[in-house]
Amino acid sequence: MTATGASEGARTRERLKSILGGSAGNLVEWYDWYAYAAFTLYFAPHFFPKGDQTTQLLNTAAVFAVGFLMRPIGGWLMGVYADRYGRKAGLTLSVSLMCAGSLLIAVTPGHESIGWVAPALLVFARLMQGLSIGGEYGASATYLSEMAGKKRRGFFSSFQYVTLISGQLIALSVLLVLQASMSEAALESWGWRIPFFIGGALAVIVFWLRRRLAETESFHNARAEGRKTGALALLREHPGEFLLVMALTAGGTLAFYAYSIYLQKFLVNTSGFDRETASEINAAALFVFMCIQPLAGALSDRIGRKPLMVGFGVLGVLCTYPIFTALEQVTSAWAAFALMLGALVIVTGYTSINAVVKAELFPAHIRTLGVALPYALANAIFGGTAEYVALWFKDRGWERGFYWYVTAMIGVSLVVYLRMRDTRTHSRILED
Predict the structure, then answer these.
(1) Strands annotated E in 116-206
(2) In degrees, to the nearest 5, what angle opens at C-alpha 81 toward C-alphas 76 and 84?
(3) Any idea what DSSP says for residue 379?
(4) Would you say 244 and 416 are in contact if contact means Cβ atoms under 8 Å apart?
(5) How many CB atoms lie within 10 A of CB 248?
(6) Rounded to whole angstroms, how far apart are CA atoms 294 and 301?
(7) In the chain, what is the straight-line distance between the N-terminal and C-terminal CA atoms, in Å?
(8) Is 101 helix (H, G, I), strand (E, B) or coil?
(9) Which of 283, 302, 331, 429 is spaced 20 to 30 Å from 179 by Cα?
(10) How far is the C-alpha of 165 from the C-alpha of 286, rounded, in Å?
(11) Residue 123: which H helix or E strand, with range?
(12) How many CB atoms lie within 10 A of CB 368?
C-alpha cells in the first residue's frame, strides 16, 4: 500500500470512529429526552394527582412543551459556544446538562410528599434538558455533516435521526421490559424512576466518550479565519437562511412529533388500546422507521435533498387526515402498526436529511448556531406544542382539528421545499 493510500485509509477510519462516537452520544441524549414521554402515563398522577387522565396528560404535556421553550436558548448559547470553542466542546457540555436533568427527575418525591415543589422540580429538570437538547441538535448535526465527507454526507448525517430514534426506542424498550417484569402497581409507584437513573448513568459514560472525539476540519479552518459568530452576526449576515430553516422545519418537526410521540398516547386515549399494546405498536413502527433513515440519506446523495423533502410535503398533505381518522376506529394492532408506519415512512423525507440540509446552508464559522437556533425556535413553536395542541383539541371535543392543523403546517413547509435550491449541489460545507 502506498503512503497516500495508507493516509487515506487512516483518515477514513478516523472519520468513521468520530461519526460512530458522535452518534452514540446523540443516542443517549435523546434516550434521556424521550424517557419523559415514554413514561408520562405512569408518573403523571404523582406530579399532578387531581383530575381525569386527559387532564393529567395535559399537565405533563405542558411541562414537555416547557422543555422546548429552553431549546432556542440552548441552541443560541451552545451554538455560539460550539462555533467558538469547537463542536466537541459543545457536545460535551450538552450531555452534562442532560445528565443533571435526568437524575433530578429520578430522585424528586411525588406531590403527596412535597406538594407544589414536585411539579416545580419537574419543570426545572425539563428546563435543563431543554437547554441541553437545544444545543445537542445543532452541535451533532454540524459535527456529523462536517465529518461525513462530500460523497456520503446525506448517508452519514442521517445517523443523527437513527440515533435520535434509537434513543426513543430504547426508552420504549425499557418501558416494555418494566411492564413485563413489574406489576402495574409497582411501576406506577416507583418503577417509573428507573429509566431516569439509567439515563443519568449513561450520560456519564458519554461525557467521557465525547472528550475523546476528534475535532472537525471545518472548525479548524473557520477558527483560523477568525470571523465573528453570534446571534446578531447570524441575523445580519444570513437572515434568509435563518427564516428558511424555520420554515422548512415547521411542518417536518410537527409531523414527526404527531406521528411518533403523540401517537402512543392517541392509541390509548382515542383508539382504546391498552398501554402495553400501544407501546409495542409504537416500538415496532419506530424500529422500521429507524432502519430506513440511512437508505433515504443515501438516496439523497444520488438524487439530491429536494426531491425527498417535496415527497414528504406532498404525501403529508394528502395522507395525514386519512391516517388519523382511520386510527380512530382501528381495532387490530397490526392495522394500527401499518397506519403508524405509513405515516413515519412519509416523514422520512424530512427526518433523514434535515440535519445535512441545514448544515449545508451556512458557512463554518457560524454553522452550529445557524443550524441550532432557527431549528430550536421552530421546534419549540410547533414540535414541542404538538402533543398539548392535540390534547387541547380533544378536550374541546374537536379532535380532528389537530389533523387539519398538522396538514396545514406540512403544506406551508411544502411551499418552501418547492422554492428552495437543492443544498447537495449548493453546499457551503467546503471540505471533502
Answers:
(1) none
(2) 125
(3) I
(4) yes
(5) 26
(6) 11
(7) 22
(8) helix
(9) 331
(10) 7
(11) helix 117-148
(12) 33
- Grid cell, residue 177, equals 421490559
DSSP code for 230:
S
CA pair distance 23, 32, nearest whole angstrom? 15
C-alpha cell at 295: 437508505
* Cell numbers given for 189: 409507584
- CB-count burial class (<10 Å; 0-12, 13-18, 19+) for 226: exposed
- Nearest-angstrom CA–CA distance, 264 and 283: 9
Burial of 5: CB neighbours in 10 Å, binned 0-12, 13-18, 19+: exposed
State the Cα angle at 18 between 16 and 21, rounded to 5°.
105
Q: What are phi and psi of 399, to 5 degrees?
A: -60, -30
Distance CA 410, CA 405 (A): 9
**In the numeric block, which cell numbers belong to residue 309?**
423533502
Distance, CA of 222 to CA of 227 (rounded, Å): 7
Contact between 411 and 251 under an 8 Å Cβ cutoff? The reply is: yes
Helix ranges restricted to H, 304-366:
306-329, 333-351, 354-359
Query: Mean pLDDT of successive 10-residue segments in the chain (432 residues)?
Result: 53 73 77 80 76 66 74 88 88 85 87 81 85 84 83 86 86 86 86 89 82 81 78 90 94 94 88 87 92 95 95 97 94 95 97 92 90 89 87 89 96 95 87 68
Is residue 182 helix, strand or coil?
A: coil
Contacts of 424 by beta carbon, 8 Å cutoff, 6+ apart? 153, 154, 300, 301, 304, 305, 360
- State the DSSP H helix or E strand holding residue 17, giving kind and residue range, or none if neither: helix 3-38
Q: How many other C-beta atoms can be found within 10 angstroms of the C-beta atom of residue 6? A: 10
Q: Measured between alpha carbons, how far is 400 from 109 in angstroms, rounded to an integer?
A: 37
Of 43, 29, 90, residue with least CA distance to 367: 90
**HSE (side-chain half, CA atoms, 13 Å) at 213:** 31
